[in-house]
Design goal:
This protein is of the alpha/beta class. Helix 10 links the parallel strand 11 and strand 12.
């Protein structure tokens, strides 16, 4: 069986699911460089699989971005394997890309999206352009926006596979949006007392997620709605903004398998990030039949939001508040919910692999000739 090696920093649930789907057709090994992630709860990381081999590289103990020199040994021992580097930024991946370039070996770099910073460093941009144009030989990327970003750095479009990035499988997409009585029943199970419309935010409680903008926007809403934000211990700034109000609720970490119930129990999902290379929570919310609102700094929104929600200008609380009111209108909310389910059926793990497989098969065929 043809062999694929995926080299990544840590094994995120969605990365493992993609590799396991690839393993339906190939002998897949996941190689990772670190056991912890300073931005993630350890319960979120996954280090075992029945479908893939998993290998941990030795590293220099850097928890943020370890350098693993034995990636060179790995590449030398697996000359017939197709190598997929998960991103071009990590030090270990850069070392591997440099070795592949010097040895004339083809590899793919998987690109989930791109950072949307307003201010960019000239030196950092020059290095990035060099790596993308000179070291990378092929790309798999999340969608049209990511492809256009790569092309702007000088990449030949013919070297890019677009695979409609996702974290969900086909079986996770519900058949239809839940009715009001079904939502209320599910809320009882989750301990949610509210009978109002509920706006939901999901993500790490970090400043770049801009949940304070979402809180302020809900305060300005004309709609009678509550806000639930799921993702950890709230920052003091969030507590100060919501002090004295019973409309705002914070939920601690929930394992991925349980998050879907929160999506289904709510009426609208909002991701207000000031930068997000994709925003997989948007995919996940849509798969449970929710309309979605995202800032224009969420790269995935450019592929995912089409008549099923709104995009607002990052930091614009007034625009976000108006969009929330529009998306909570009964008829519009129902139509957007149905549209989310229609759109998201093209964004699944299975479809990612279907789009990649012809290119991977062509690589192996050419290698055998």
């Amino acid at each position: 069986m043809d062999k694929i090696i995926v080299i990544t920093s840590n094994i995120a649930p969605y990365r493992k699911k993609w590799c396991e789907q690839l393993a339906s057709f190939y002998d897949v090994t996941i190689v990772y460089t670190k056991d912890h992630d300073y931005e993630r709860d350890d319960r979120w990381l996954q280090k075992s699989s029945d479908a893939c081999k998993i290998v941990k590289l030795k590293n220099d103990k850097d928890l943020f971005d370890p350098l693993c020199f034995d990636v060179i040994t790995l590449l030398r021992k697996n000359k017939d394997a197709l190598i997929i580097f998960d991103g071009y930024g990590p030090k270990t991946n850069l070392l591997g890309l440099l070795y592949c370039k010097m040895s004339g070996r083809f590899s793919y770099v998987n690109v989930d999206g791109y950072p949307t910073e307003r201010v960019r460093s000239g030196i950092k941009e020059a290095i990035k352009r060099f790596v993308i144009r000179r070291l990378c030989t092929g790309f798999t990327c999340s969608g049209e926006a990511a492809r256009d970003h790569l092309v702007s750095y000088g990449v030949d479009p013919d070297k890019i596979i677009i695979h409609n990035f996702s974290s969900i499988s086909e079986k996770q997409i519900i058949e239809r949006p839940l009715k009001k009585n079904e939502k209320l029943e599910l809320r009882k199970k989750l301990g949610i007392a509210s009978g109002k419309k509920i706006v939901l935010g999901v993500g790490r409680f970090l400043p770049l997620k801009r949940f304070e903008d979402l809180i302020e926007a809900v305060k300005k809403c004309e709609s009678d709605c509550d806000l639930y934000i799921l993702g950890g211990k709230p920052l003091n700034s969030y507590l100060q903004l919501t002090e004295g109000s019973d409309r705002f609720h914070f939920i601690d970490f929930v394992v991925p398998e349980e998050v879907n119930d929160y999506y289904k129990a709510c009426d609208l999902f909002v991701l207000p990030s000031e930068t997000d290379v994709w925003g997989l929570v948007v995919n996940e919310a849509m798969a449970q039949g929710l309309p979605v609102i995202a800032s224009d700094s969420v790269v995935g929104a450019y592929s995912l939001i089409r008549n099923n929600g709104m995009m607002f200008r990052t930091y614009d609380v007034d625009e976000l508040s108006r969009d929330i009111d529009l998306c909570l209108e009964e008829k519009r909310n129902r139509e957007m919910s149905e549209m989310s389910l229609k759109i998201i059926r093209d964004f699944t793990i299975e479809n990612m692999v279907r789009r990649q497989k012809p290119y991977f098969d062509a690589y192996f065929k050419k290698n055998r000739e």
